[in-house]
Structures are given as structure tokens and as C-alpha cells.
Amino acid sequence: MNKAFLTLMGVALLVGGCGNRTASTQDAAQTDTILAEDVPDTVQTLSQEPSQTLPDGAVKADEINGLFVFTKLVQKSSEDDPADIRSLWLYERKTGRVDSLLTTNPFAEQRWAEMSDGPVEVALTQIAAADKVCFVPGHPQLLLVEGCPDARNIWTYIVDLEKKTARQFPSTEGILRFSASGDTLILGAYRYHEEGGRYSVAKTYTLAGQFIKEEETEEY
Prior knowledge:
This protein is mainly β. Helix content is 9%, strand content 41%. It contains two helices and 13 strands. The protein has helices spanning 3-15, 25-31; strands at residues 59-64, 67-75, 85-92, 97-103, 120-122, 132-136, 139-147, 155-160, 165-169, 174-178, 184-192, 198-206, 211-219. The strands form three sheets. Strands 5-9-8-7-6 form a five-stranded antiparallel β-sheet, with no helix packed on it. Strand 6 (132-136) and strand 7 form a beta hairpin. The radius of gyration is 18 Å and the shape is globular.
């Protein structure tokens, strides 16, 4: 990962990336310390399938309005496997229901060539990595999932929890921030000068994938 990428990701945390939302004092007191073992042993799944529980070692990634998303490290990356494999789980405090959402696939099909005009729809089985997971501010049915499965590019997805669909955005440096309303997201990407050298741009999209604008941000 280069210095510019690390800088951009640091900015994302400060100006509206994952986890930067406001909750009530009561909710914060109840959710900030919740662990997988705090969830009831027997719960009903969101899809009404046989009861299941959060797996041992699941870690809370984010929470909004009493809905939690947990991640579980299934397999660490190695020379043979390009990225960590993680499973994602949903837990609803009000009902005690648990849902297994997806497991990342480090060998997911590369779709970069198809994203010249914007994001593409992908199956939940084709999400390559989940190093960062959070709810989209103001949109509890949407989940941001992104990670780096190829040691070079950040793959960014918006997952619709109601439709069980995902959209991959043409970002190579990850999310910089959401707008205050959560209706748009600003993603980092790199470009190459014709004479050599690389520079970063900030690309703004609606959550539905409509391109709004692109601005040059840094040269390196």
C-alpha cells in the first residue's frame, strides 16, 4: 500500500467513513461493548431458516438502530490465498435474530473493465474482501463493504440487505467519505499521466451508482 493510500484512508475515518455516526447515550452504552458471546444461544434467523448463532470469535464491525453487523475471520491470507476470508453476520437486538450474510471470495471475478461508466452489479458470492464494513449513514438497509484482495487495489461494494444484492464501485483507493446526508459517497482512485507518474482523484457517486463528478486530489 502506498503512502497516499494510507493518507486517504486516514482522512476517511476523520470525515465520515465507517463508524462515524451518532447514537443515543443509551444505545452507545449497550452496544459499544457487545460481543458475540453476549448474543442469545438460540435465535431465529432473518430468513426464517433453522436457528443459528453468531460464530465464536465474531467481532462487531458496526451498529445502527439496534442492527449489528459482525465479521468473523475464517482464513488468513497466505502465499497461496491472496486475501483474508471473512464471513459477515447480522444481529438484530430487538428480535434476537441472526443472519449469515456472506463469506468473502478472494478469487472473485475482476470486473474493472466493465466499470468505465460506473459500478456493476455483483453477486454476494463475488465480494472479494471485507477489511472494512459499516452501515451507510441514514440508510440502515445498506452496508459498505471493502477490502484489498490483490495487495494493490481497494474493492468497494454497497450491499443492499433487503434485496441481498451488491454493487461494486470503480474505486481503487477506497471510500474517502459519505456526504452528510449519506446519499452520496466519495471514492478515491488513481490515474496515470501520459508522461509518467500517478495522481489521485476523488470520484463522487450516488448510492444508486450515478456518477456526479471527479476531482484531482494529489499527485505522486
